[in-house]
Amino acid sequence: MTAVRPESGSRPGAAPGASPSVSSSESATGFPTGFLWGAATASYQVEGAATEHGRTPSIWDTFSHTPGKVRNGDTGDIAADHYHRYREDVALMKELGLGAYRFSVSWSRVQPTGRGPAVERGLDFYRRLVDSLLEAGITPVATLYHWDLPQELEDAGGWPLRDTAERFADYAALVAGALGDRVPMWTTLNEPWCSAFLGYGSGVHAPGRTDAAATLRAAHHLNLAHGKGVQVLRGLLPADAQTSITLNLHQVRPLTTSAGDADAARRIDEVGNRVFTGPLLDGGYPEDLVRRTTPLVDWEELVRPGDLETIATPFDVLGVNYYTPTIVSASDGAGDSRDDGHGASDHSPWTGSEDVAFHLAPGERTAMNWAVDASGLHTLLTELHAAHPELPLMVTENGAAFDDYVSPEGRVEDPERIAYLHSHLEAVRQAVADGADVRGYFLWSLLDNFEWSYGYAKRFGAVYVDYASQRRIPKASAHWYAEVIRRGGLPG
Hints:
Elements: E1 36-40, H1 43-46, H2 59-64, H3 82-96, E2 100-104, H4 107-110, H5 120-135, E3 139-145, H6 151-155, H7 163-179, E4 185-190, H8 192-202, H9 212-236, E5 242-247, E6 252-254, H10 259-282, H11 287-293, H12 299-302, H13 307-311, E7 317-321, E8 326-329, E9 357-359, H14 375-387, E10 393-398, H15 415-433, E11 438-444, E12 463-466, E13 471-474, H16 476-487
Parallel strand pairs: 1-2, 1-11, 2-3, 3-4, 4-5, 5-7, 6-8, 7-10, 10-11
Antiparallel strand pairs: 8-9, 12-13
């Protein structure tokens, strides 16, 4: 079967001859010399200006305006108003000493129907943003897709439709043509697992569909979009520009040492991780996943000749997003916890492994009820390096939500977040010491923002946002992170 991963060998992920912008030699702090210290946001979560200058609805506009889909009926119509306040936000970034800012481009702001020419006023916002970043000495890192598909493309079939991958390639060309001379680092997709399995499986993310077969079709077309996107970027960008994809890889652990729990962990690894890393890095989809899901999808029809070669187009850096480990067991049918950390739904996102049980890890938790466990990040980074030693890595999201508030003195003290960040940066430092080629770290998030189906109930930002006034207040963690950046590493 053409879709199946070969039994032996793996292909490099880094482009031949790519010259990374950061040296892998360690400095005195334990982080590589030139390590990129940044923070990240996403367009629908922060920009607002939902109907300005030609922007049309994305699937997240539609989803958030659908009653019952988002907590408190919140929407991203205004969000953190970054569209109007980006200069203020760039000034904050400069004050914090950020070396890089990872932002995403709103597809429906640039190409409202997902087809045809760009709206120049939409591109102008990103031109102004990039120019402001460069003037402040901050490296712009552009993500082409962070979940906000133009609604017209969803109406035509969305990611389960092959044509959406073609439309993505056209869109990538528009953005690269406008910004390619000034943006040195590009990411095709952010967390395609969420787009496919939360958007089309459990329905807790936009577009809110619950169709197991659609998840697999969407995953393949997202993979294909990435490959086509990298090919487009390579044809338009300067030779030294870097390309990447960002994956929210699940650090999967069996609850016990039993054979049943080990099998459950393997199955979740397949549908949570290797459905992407298989074709991206190893030449095909996992054989067991294909076999389990053949009743849902005709893989011979789905994966056409040439698809795997396109998906495996070499790229320069693998982005890794990590927040908490995933603990699973074989289900005993006795009402095991179904809390997989991705929101409540009557429909499982774990296509082909719906019977696996998920368990909450012990210990301290964040406001998302996620366990604080930095060892999972260390494991991910070292295992990825062992499997693909030629592929540079970058932590593109890591952070935590806590119940932040402004004190009577006007400060936001968040010692739990500082402790979280410290432990996870120590995990990165240890992974580097153990040989992993990690080139940078992006804190999630720069600003408090619209947290998807949780609305404004969860705060991940290093900078507190008073949504009524749009006032920005750097939290204690922002000042702590600024000191880390200044030192180039953790406090002694």
